[in-house]
Structures are given as C-alpha cells and as structure tokens.
Amino acid sequence: MDYTPSNTGFENMVTQQIQWAGRVPCYPGIGVSASTSRFGVDRTIEQITITRRHQTRGFTIFNYGVAECNDLLPLLGLGITAKR
To answer: Could you report the per-residue pLDDT of 37-70, keeping only the tens digit for each?
Structure first.
C-alpha cells in the first residue's frame, strides 16, 4: 500500500516495490481516502499514470466506500479506466 499524496513519494515506493517483487506481479495501492486528506480525481489519475508508466499489472484504490463509488469511480471510468 502506497498511501501518500506525494506523487514523487508514490513513484519512489512503486519503483522499490517492483524491484523487491521481481517477477511477482505488483499492484500498487493508491490511498484515495487512507488519511485525513482525500484525493481528488486529478491526483488519483496522476498516480494511476505512474503505475502504468512502471508497467505494473494494475492498481488498487483504498478505500472503496460510498464516496469513492459515487464520486470518484464514475469519473475514472469516463477516461483513464474506460474500456477501450
């Protein structure tokens, strides 16, 4: 779980975890609501983009609650996570 609002910190953690994981798939955790500061869709997209740049197998979002279900995921589905 890579719960940080800092994109630089997030990228550093992802880089290290990929090295540790070796051939094991890595699914970084994006801490959308893991702390007192809640991520907006913009920060979430930035961190998803980091996971893709590092060619991880995907990502997870913490926490999947009512707010994320109603406010965040529909917006992600319109763009960065839309089926192609």
So the answer is: 688 899 999 999 999 999 999 999 998 889 888 9
Instruction: Report residue 69 CA to chain centroid gap.
Output: 15
Give the span between the Cα atoms of 67 and 33, in whole angstroms. Answer: 9
**For the whole model, what pTM was predicted?**
0.90
Q: What's the CA gap between 37 and 54, in Å, rounded?
A: 25
Pair 52, 14: CB distance under 8 Å: no
Query: In 10 A of CB 50, how many CB atoms?
Result: 21
**In this structure, what token pair is assigned to residue 69?**
């279900």
Structure tokens at 45: 């997209």
- Give, in order, the Cα–Cα distances in Å from 38 to each of 21, 48, 55, 81: 28, 16, 25, 20
